Structures are given as structure tokens and as C-alpha cells.
Amino acid sequence: IQYRSWCPHCVHGRGVSSPHRTDQEVEDLGVATLSMDYCFMTEEEKDEEICPTLIVYDDKAMSIWALPVENKGSVDYVVKWFVGKLEESGYGGEKVAIKSDQEVAILALKRAVIAARQGETVPIESPVRESKCNGAVERAVRTWQGQMRTIKHHVEHCLQERLAHDHPLTQWM
Q1: Nearest to 95 by CA among 54, 123, 63, 56
Q2: How far apart are CA 55 and CA 72, in angstroms?
């Protein structure tokens, strides 16, 4: 959904006071690169972390996939979801690259996805303390969080009440 400066829900969810623009560095591996990371939404008042969400950015299709997860790491339903998304996107038997940082949980998930796939998968880890190397997924996380806040703000406005982080609609969003 496009950001509209006149929409109070867009401004609340994705408004940025001064965006910092940089040249986008693209690695040309000749294959689709899927960058992945976990992120958390927080309760605005309490600054309390809500369940982790796996974010995957597909650089070829420029699309974002998001899945709320109960636990980080190699969880069967998350591995099946990821492999299923690859199939749906036409990457079933194709060679792809999966990029992540070096967090233990995300590396375990990446190894499980590689083992579950039929096609060749090239694992890529960004260097330690080099967040710029994983910038595509960092931007995807920011985009997803903004969209989530926008939708939540709109739903709360329509319902005229705040939704708790464990409300079923929050998971649905």
C-alpha cells in the first residue's frame, strides 16, 4: 500500500521526519537472493517486545514475506512455510542464495531450509557487526513494521479501541 502524507494512519505508521538516502549496493550473484532476519514489534506505551516475526526479502521480485513465530530457530512449520514460499515464487528447483547475519537462531533456520530444499542453495552470512551488508532485509523490516503499525492504527481507529498485542487480530495483521 502506497504511503500517503495526507492519511493519518500512514503518517502514524510510517512517517519519517528526515529519511537518509544512500546508494543501494546490489550483489550480482546471478540468482535470487533471499535475505532474512527476525524482528520484533513493541507495545508503544510499555516498550515490551511482542512475538518475533521472521522477515524475508526477495531481491529478484522485490517482495517481503513475514511470518510471526513462537520461537526463533529451526522450527518445522517455519521451515515448511519458507520452502513453500520458495515453491510458490517459482524458485522450487532453481538455485537461490539465502543471506542472513550470524545469529545462531537464524543460521539454524537457514541450514534447515537448505536441507529441505530440492534446488541448490548458496548460504551467505554478513560479516559480524556489519549491518550495512544486510541492508536489504533491514529496509524490509522497517517497511514491514511501518505497514503493520499503519494497519493496526487504522483497525484501532475503526474499532475505537486499542488492540492488545495478544489479540487475534494482531496475529492476523
Answers
A1: 123
A2: 12
In three-state secondary structure terms, 42 is strand
CA–CA distance, 38 with 102 (Å, rounded to integer): 12
Read off the pTM: 0.73
Q: 49-74: string of b/e by CB count within 10 Å (b at 16+)?
A: ebebbbbbbbbeeeebbbeebeebbb
The residue to which cell 513494521 is assigned: 145
Q: How far apart are CA 172 and CA 93, in angstroms?
A: 31
Per-residue pLDDT of the chain (173 residues; tens, 9 = 90+): 777 888 888 887 777 654 443 333 334 557 899 999 998 876 554 545 567 889 999 998 999 999 988 889 999 999 999 999 999 999 988 999 999 988 999 999 999 999 999 889 999 887 665 555 678 888 888 888 888 888 888 988 999 988 877 777 877 77
**Strand, helix or coil at 50?**
strand
Cell 535475505 maps to which residue?
Answer: 35
- Dist. CA 86–CA 172, nearest whole Å: 22
Q: Which of 102, 86, 125 is nearest to 78 (CA)?
A: 86
Cα distance between residue 113 and residue 80, in whole Å: 8
